[in-house]
Amino acid sequence: MKKLNGDLKNNIAVFISGRGSNLNSIINYSLKKKTIYKVKLVISNKQKAKGLLVAKKYRIRNYFIDITKSKKLGNKVLNILKKNKIKLVCLAGFMKILPAYFVKQYSGKIINIHPSLLPKYKGLNTHQKVIDNNEKFTGCTVHYVNRFLDSGKIISQNKVRISKKDNFKSIKKKVLKIEHKIYPIAINKVLSNL
Ligand code: GRF
Q1: Mutational test site, ligand 1, from 179, 180, 181, 182, max ligand atoms within 8 Å of CB
Q2: pLDDT in tens, 46-97
Q3: DSSP letters along 6-28, please?
Q4: So where are the chain's domains?
Q5: 86-118: per-residue pLDDT in tens?
Q6: Which fold has domain 2-192?
Q7: How far apart are CA 10 and CA 176, in angstroms?
Q8: Angle at Cα 185 formed by Cα 139 and Cα 57, nearest 5°?
Q9: How much distance in Å is there from the Cα of 92 to the middle of ligand 1?
Q10: Distances (CA, A) of 97 to 53, 100, 103, 107, 135
Q11: Are 2 and 78 spatial neighbours (Cβ–Cβ below 8 Å)?
């Protein structure tokens, strides 16, 4: 068990729906000295999300709340964020669209990672779309969240080359690897400009 220290760091919340490999890399990066954030809480809209186990492993406060189900639940989450002095919300494999009132409350303070070179291939099945279009490159994008799907201002992007040998699985793996690298760095960058 690694102990998280950093009472002086900026508190962030990570919203997940599944596996939580980005969550894991965000937490690991937060253990470095140069990091200016601390993962204060994790919120999942899925009770069985494996990412909740990642949060538990690091003893990070975690909740299963389907924020998109009702305004009451959305407000509950907003209260939790306030109580925990959350400066930034990071969506990491969060598979729902946040309601407009929620985004408005945290305007400019919600970011997301998407597995394509936005503005290309918004939404689901990005890797398949990349293959179908014979793209030579793909990658991932960290961007601000606004009311529209995968459309907010881009914060950072990283490219990977697609070779003839690549297939769906290998592309997915390559992209995930760079996601793990760029997301924590982007979080640091955003917080240093807030
Ligand atoms: C990542 O590819 C992310 O870009 C996308 O969903 C996947 C989540 O993976 N939005 P994980 O839960 O972080 O492992």
Answers
A1: 179
A2: 999 999 999 999 999 999 999 999 999 999 999 999 999 999 999 999 999 9
A3: -TTSEEEEEEESS--HHHHHHHH
A4: 2-192
A5: 999 999 999 999 999 999 999 999 999 999 999
A6: Rossmann fold (3.40.50)
A7: 25
A8: 100
A9: 6
A10: 23, 9, 10, 15, 27
A11: no
